[in-house]
Automatic annotation (TrEMBL):
Keywords: Transferase. Belongs to the GST superfamily. PROSITE patterns: GST_CTER, GST_NTER. CDD domains: GST_N_2 (cd03047). Transmembrane segments: none annotated. Coiled coil: none annotated. This is Glutathione S-transferase. It comes from Pseudoduganella lutea. The keyword Transferase applies. Pfam families: GST_C_2 (PF13410), GST_N_2 (PF13409).
Length: 203
């Protein structure tokens, strides 16, 4: 059985758990992270020197970085098909989520939902503007697909974009109206695992 080291409030852990749910993969969740077991100990650092969750153990295989774990689990499945172009279209949005979208929300999310005091009001306001800009880009793309991120069917791109979009909707900021994003989240709400990973109480 797979072992996932992490905690449910983590957006990156929820990506992995949702992937397992969609693929019907059994797993054991081992609690690690803030409020659970401190990852800054030799036992955990031997698995992930970054002291971050999630970490996946699959027999003797150990992996970290949530999108990499999701790719590993979903390889050649309906979530991440073998076709070269299909896979590239999915992975480009996964990379965008990790490098562009996630970078935009750090200051507002950490300040407004996590109570951090490390960011100035100006940094929070700039983060909100950037976050809305990135979400508007996603809205235009979803208006073109008319369905899911990488086309007509759910893919691994929707797992990672879905949890990030939920975070945008859950953070108390001035959000712009994005009808295609709203319709997208309604479609996602019917996908197995949505309620557990993008429902109330999951930031």
């Amino acid at each position: 059985m797979l072992t996932i080291l992490g905690k449910l409030p983590s957006i990156n852990v929820r990506k992995v758990l949702w992937t397992c749910r969609l693929l019907e993969l059994p797993y054991e969740l081992e609690p690690w992270g803030k409020g659970e077991r401190d990852p800054n100990v030799p036992e955990f650092l031997a698995l992930n020197p970054n002291a971050q969750v999630p970490v996946l153990r699959d027999g003797h295989t150990v992996l970290w970085e949530s999108n990499t774990i999701c790719r590993y689990l979903a390889h050649d499945s309906f979530l991440l098909p073998a076709d070269r172009l299909q896979r590239a279209r999915i992975e480009q949005w996964m990379d965008w989520q990790a490098t562009e979208l996630n970078a935009s929300w750090r200051a507002p999310f950490m300040t407004l939902l996590r109570g951090s005091t490390q960011f100035s009001p100006e940094a929070v306001a700039a983060g909100v503007r950037d976050w809305n800009t990135k979400m508007a880009l996603l809205d235009r793309h979803l208006a073109r697909t008319g369905a899911f991120v990488a086309g007509d069917t759910v893919s691994l791109a929707d797992v990672v974009i879905g949890v990030s979009t939920h975070r945008w909707r859950a953070t108390p900021i001035d959000r712009i109206e994005l009808p295609a994003v709203a319709a997208y989240m309604e479609r996602l709400s019917h996908v197995p695992g949505f309620a557990e990973n993008c429902g109330p109480g999951t930031p």
